[in-house]
Specification:
This protein has about 475 residues and is an alpha+beta fold. It is about 25% helix and about 40% strand. The model has no long low-confidence stretch (mean pLDDT about 95). Belongs to the peptidase U62 family.
Length: about 475
């Protein structure tokens, strides 16, 4: 079923065009991004039920103008036909005062005027079940069944939590040359379980995500048994002996490696700030010849797939690494202008009240030609790594660290049943990527959670890839 566009944004469209018309008399470039995103988060556990507004809820506008030197922005959430002239005057006054103040205190970076092609386009996503066609009662009942299913598998499971979160995103972008709108729904779900034996307590989780509505609940249900099985096995887990191992990384783990290694590391605003080592390695080898890596709103169909970014740049499919060679990075409009490159459609805002940064969208390693069973057969002694919790990477020095819930021991090509937990994967990014010797022939993406930049800016992204065989340091 087609997702419906925000009626609020449709109603404001002509007023926005009028605002742009007024501001264009004083500024060579004017654009307005309008957003209307709303959703709910549902949590069901033994202690009760919680329903809350989504972390991503927002409704408002941001205008960007060329101020003669660079770009100024003004955000607002009230737009009425009767106060449009007063709003335009306020924007002009604020911009002029800002430039006057900055000119006295700082050396301002100069930019050219954004040159846009004339585009009129739209995108409406599709889901099996529209959010507005599904009651909260239905979602809670489904989550209760998932929670009870986990609790009833074993008396070693002492608690279970089922979480479902869906957001309906609508955006418009209007300038003198562009008239764009888009509306889509993404959702994510988690099954979290807690196991206990004696004085030992362990936890495990599984996640589901995509451009889905409440139908995602069906996928969540299929993951309960394996989530519980691993949680029980973790009660007998041992600590991994620190050292270097041959490993097979699950798609979730290869995804977090891609995200941290050459996701954050190639966000090109970091190139401008001289805070990324990757700028020195464009067109140079940084990985095994088996490695090709992509990012883009059009690279895959997942939670960060859109028609246009928050600067009105059409989404693209960017090849970051091609056969082991670093080709390019991910840019917003202003960082691309500074570097003399073409924007990649990766300009994203945490909300209409925050500035744009170069951010990832759908980031993943491309599939190879190997069969997973052949990859296992090639391991004399090592681990299958799965269930990532978090990751960090230093774009300036290329150190990487990924926190994983567990590793399953492999000996002579077979799983032994032994499990180690927790697992910390560390290393130097090019060493890790150059050690990749096998890549499976299918990929999977995951888009649960959020990606942070600094301590406050968040973006919805997905990452993933195939199973990969590599040599890594574990601790």
């Amino acid at each position: 079923m087609k997702v419906k566009m925000s009626e609020f944004l449709i109603e404001k469209k002509q007023i926005i065009k009028r605002l742009i018309q007024i501001l264009t008399k004083d500024f060579k470039y004017v654009s307005v991004l309008g957003t209307d995103s709303h959703g709910k988060r549902y949590i069901v556990q033994k202690t009760g039920v919680e329903i809350s507004d989504s972390f991503w809820n927002e409704r408002g506008f941001v205008v960007r103008v060329y101020n003669g030197t660079g770009y100024s922005e003004y955000s607002f959430n009230e737009l009425d036909e009767n106060n449009i002239d007063a709003l335009a005057q306020n924007i002009k006054n604020r911009v002029n005062a800002q430039i006057e103040t900055l000119d006295k205190k700082f050396k301002i970076t100069k930019y050219n005027v954004i040159n846009e092609n004339k585009i009129e386009d739209s995108f409406l996503g599709e889901v099996k079940i529209l959010p507005e066609g599904c009651s909260s009662q239905y979602i809670i009942e489904r989550l209760n069944k998932i929670k009870d299913k986990a609790l009833n598998i074993s008396n070693l499971i002492i608690d279970a939590k089922a979480i479902f979160h869906q957001v309906h995103v609508s955006k418009i972008f209007i300038s003198n040359n562009k008239d764009l709108y888009q509306s889509y729904v993404w959702s994510e779900g988690y099954v979290n379980v807690l196991s206990r034996k004696g004085n030992i307590t362990r936890s495990n989780y599984s996640s589901s995500s995509g451009l889905n509505g409440p139908e995602l609940l069906d996928e969540m249900d299929t993951k309960v048994e394996n989530t519980v099985d691993i949680a029980i096995k973790l009660l007998d887990a041992e600590a991994v002996k620190p050292g270097e191992y041959d490993v097979i990384c699950s798609p979730e783990v290869s995804g977090i490696i891609a995200h941290e290694a050459f996701g954050h590391g190639v966000e090109m605003d970091m190139f401008v700030k001289n805070r990324a080592k990757a700028v020195e390695y464009i067109d140079k080898p940084v990985a095994s010849e088996l490695v090709t890596m992509r990012d883009g709103a059009r690279s895959a169909k997942h939670v960060s797939s859109y028609l246009f970014d928050d600067e009105g740049v059409m989404g693209t499919d960017t090849v970051i690494i091609q056969d082991g060679i670093l080709k390019t990075g991910l840019s917003d409009t202003l960082s691309a202008m500074r570097l003399g490159t073409k924007p990649t459609g990766n300009g994203k805002r945490f909300s209409f009240e925050r500035k744009t940064y170069a951010r990832m969208t759908n980031t993943f390693f491309v599939e190879g030609k190997d069969k997973v069973e052949d990859m296992f057969a090639s391991i004399k002694k090592g681990y299958l790594l799965d269930c990532p919790y978090s990751g960090m990477e230093d774009p300036k020095n290329w150190g990487i660290q990924c926190m994983l819930n567990y590793g399953l021991e492999i000996k002579d090509g077979k799983l032994t049943g032994k499990i180690v937990s927790p697992v910390v994967l560390t290393g130097y990014v090019p060493d890790l990527l150059k050690s990749i010797s096998m890549v499976s022939d299918k990929i999977e993406l995951a888009g649960s959670g959020a990606c942070g930049k600094g301590y406050k800016e968040f973006a919805k992204v997905s990452d993933g890839g195939p199973y990969i065989k590599a040599k890594v340091r574990l601790g």
